[in-house]
Design goal:
40% of the residues lie in helices and 18% in strands. It is built from 11 helices and 13 strands. Strand 2 (61-67), helix 2 (74-82) and strand 3 (92-98) form a beta-alpha-beta unit.
Length: 379
């Protein structure tokens, strides 16, 4: 029977982050323990090359934070990066990609950069096109390293995240993408049985051992905490993604589309539990209406992400199979839960996901027709 692509799920053990009270204000004289030591010669040379030859990739690792109106969230992420351990031998950088923010994000980054340790460049870039995929494409173009790690502006990396991310990339040269072990840091208590939909909020727990994702199982890591080999992205991911626009009122499926392109061309996709991330989830993202909108958007994007795994001639054949499977899930869910599809938040979310997955081929088809019609009128 046809299967779905879904991000890995759900909860993970405690993330090793410094206590809030121990995280210092950004100060060039009060950086992480590693940053207080003299820089190795090779690292100094790489940093000089990155400044002198911006079109090359002489650094070891790039951390990218894509943000929209993140002036209040960014400082916590950057403090987490300031406290990275075991990274003294690495030449790495931090890039904040401002995705057309309307708040004081640019001013916040500029203020932090004035106090930022000079041995880890903190760069700012502006991307006017709205959408995570545009921001990430921008980051890939300007990164100075072969490995690019993506953090959302509500992701707090553990103190060994950079070191473990670089180490995994060195040990697995065929890994085009590898994801983190992500635990939720909830502002409010999640609804009952939240673990059933936790993966939809990018919470990922797949055990304590590295795991190679099997393309046949249709399960992939989320974009939060994801590391991409720049070569794999440049060789396989098109400049324009079909899910870059907002679907069902929100951006959906962009992360999966990127990973699917990379995996489809033979690169490995991994889960690396040594890369630990804490995902800060505010109370409003646990409310019924928000979760329903989230599931609607993910459901409507599913036809596109499913079809990326098949050559064009197979797509008309497998689409009915997916629709039959979605219909079967929908009916079974109704019969099993009955009134709870209305009264219980998680059950209602699952119902919404199944329903809009079933409608996804029609929705995507209508979008394609409208885009074609608009293009014809313009010419």
């Amino acid at each position: 029977m046809a299967q779905d692509f879904s991000p890995a799920s759900a909860f993970s053990p405690e993330v090793e982050n410094p206590p809030a009270s121990s995280v210092p204000a950004l100060d060039p004289g009060n950086g992480s323990p590693d940053q207080a030591q003299p820089l190795p010669l090779l690292r100094r040379i790489k940093l000089k090359l990155a400044g002198a030859l911006p079109d090359t990739a002489p650094l070891d690792f790039s951390v990218v934070i894509c943000t929209y109106n993140g002036e209040h969230r960014l400082p916590d992420v950057l403090k987490g990066l300031l406290w990275q351990l075991s990274s003294q031998s690495l030449a790495w950088e931090v890039i904040v990609v401002d995705n057309n923010s309307t708040d004081g994000t640019a001013a916040v980054v500029e203020a932090l950069r004035a106090e930022w340790p000079r041995d880890v460049p903190l760069r700012y870039a502006f991307e006017p096109a709205q959408g995570a995929s545009y921001a990430r494409q921008h980051a890939i173009r300007i990164a100075h390293s072969p490995l690019v790690g993506f953090l959302d502006d509500d992701n707090i990396p553990a103190m060994l995240w950079v070191a473990k991310a670089h180490q995994f990339g060195q040990r697995h040269p065929q890994a085009g993408v590898y994801g983190s072990r992500i635990q939720g840091d909830f502002e409010d208590s999640p609804p009952s049985h939240f673990e059933r939909i936790a993966a939809l909020l990018a919470l990922t727990e797949r055990g304590s051992d590295p795991l190679l994702y099997d393309p046949r199982r249709k399960v992939l890591p989320p974009g939060a905490g994801m590391v991409v080999r720049r070569q794999a992205w440049v060789e396989t991911v098109p400049n324009t993604l079909s899910l870059a626009d907002r679907i069902g009122g929100r951006a959906a499926g962009e992360d999966l589309e990127v990973v699917l392109y990379i995996q489809r061309w033979g690169w490995e996709v991994w889960y690396n539990p040594a890369m630990r991330v804490s995902h800060k989830i505010p109370a409003h993202r646990l409310q019924h209406d928000y979760l329903i909108r989230l599931c609607r958007g993910i459901g409507l994007s599913r036809h596109r992400t499913r079809m990326l795994s098949f050559p064009a001639w197979q797509r008309p054949l497998v689409t009915p199979l997916y629709m039959l499977n979605d219909g079967r899930k929908l009916v079974r869910h109704l019969l099993q839960h009955r009134h709870r599809v209305v009264t219980d938040t998680v059950t209602a979310c699952e119902m919404t996901l199944y329903l809009y997955s079933l409608l996804s081929p029609f929705y995507i088809g209508m979008r394609m027709l409208l885009a074609s019609y608009s293009s014809t009128r313009c010419h």
